[in-house]
Amino acid sequence: MDQLRGIRGTKRALAFLLLLVFAGIGRAQDVECPLGGYIDEATGACAYGITIDIAYPDWLSESEAASTAVGTVINEIQTGFLSSLSMMVGPYFSGAYLDISYEEFEHGAALRSIVFTISDYTGGAHGNTYFASVTVDTIANEPLSLADDIFVPGADVLAFLQPLVVEQLMIAQGEYADLDWINSGTDGLDDYLAWAINAGTLELFFPPYQVAAYAMGSFQVSIPVDDLAAVINPMLLP
After folding, report:
1. Sequential DSSP letters for 131-194
2. CB under 8 Å to 31, separation ≥6 — which residues?
3. For 125, phi and psi rounded to 5 degrees?
């Protein structure tokens, strides 16, 4: 659990308070702070909050493989967020947040997947949402990869997977579907970064921008493992 040290419990909320003092602004209690800030009563300065909320399952303490993998994912996300934030703090800074929530999936007694939804804001017109995932064999105590463990190594996975994914995305997006956009976001195995095995289906997660315009949001696609029988690990078939 070394990677998760300092982020204990099912949900750990870390709150940072950044005080930005603007010349002639914020010292008078009847003057509102710019950019959505508020007056800190103790200092009279304009204050802007930076919050980090992280959630992960309690059972991670029972699996070294899951704990290590999740700790690595969370630390990478936090590091990236704080790195981006360091470039945004300035006279136009209006607060920031990082929220990591999760959903769990299971396939049989051994395979467990955790899909993290990451929402953050460090400035700009809107926040961002993306996904990360961890799948482990809890009996073998090993993390699993999509290319090497879920699919048969060396198989032409995309020849079977992409058409099924494209079909579902086209249906989900309806009249606003852009086939070129969908194809460009699904034509390589590295496009399937967030995934889960869920009782007979392969769940795939696509963040905004990857397969459609930002305004259309994110998408989840469920592919029955039977439809992938030619390329999927036989152990995953019913």
Report:
1. EEEEEEETTTTEE--IIIIIBPTTS-HHHHHHHHHHHHHHHHHGGG--HHHHHHTTSSGGG--E
2. 25
3. -75, -30
The whole model's pTM is what? Answer: 0.82
Buried b (16+ CB within 10 A) or exposed e, 203-230: bbbbbbebbbeeebebbebebebeebee
Instruction: Report how far residue 173's alpha carbon sits from residue 169's, in angstroms, rounded to the nearest whole number.
Output: 6
CA-based diameter of the chain, in Å?
70
What single-letter DSSP state applies at residue 9?
Answer: S
User: CA-CA distance, 86 to 73, in Å (whole number)?
Assistant: 20
Q: What whole-number distance in Å separates Cα of residue 218 and Cα of residue 207?
A: 5
Tokens of 45: 């300065």
Query: What are the respective helix, strand and coil percentages of the chain, to the nearest 5?
Result: 35, 35, 35
What whole-number distance in Å separates Cα of residue 51 and Cα of residue 95?
9
Q: What is the pLDDT of residue 35?
A: 54
Write the Ramachandran bin of 44: left for phi over 0, alpha for psi from -120 to 50, otherwise beta. Answer: left
At 13-63, the pLDDT tens digits run 444 444 433 333 333 444 566 555 677 778 777 777 788 899 999 999 999
Across 111-116, average pLDDT: 97
Q: Classify strands 128-137 and 46-55 as parallel, antiparallel or unpaired.
A: unpaired
Residue written as token pair 């086939």: 179
Inter-residue contact 103 to 56 (CB < 8 Å): no
Rounded to whole angstroms, how far apart are CA atoms 20 and 22? 6
CA angle 4, 8, 12 (to 5 degrees): 105
Cα(105)–Cα(235) distance, rounded to whole angstroms?
17
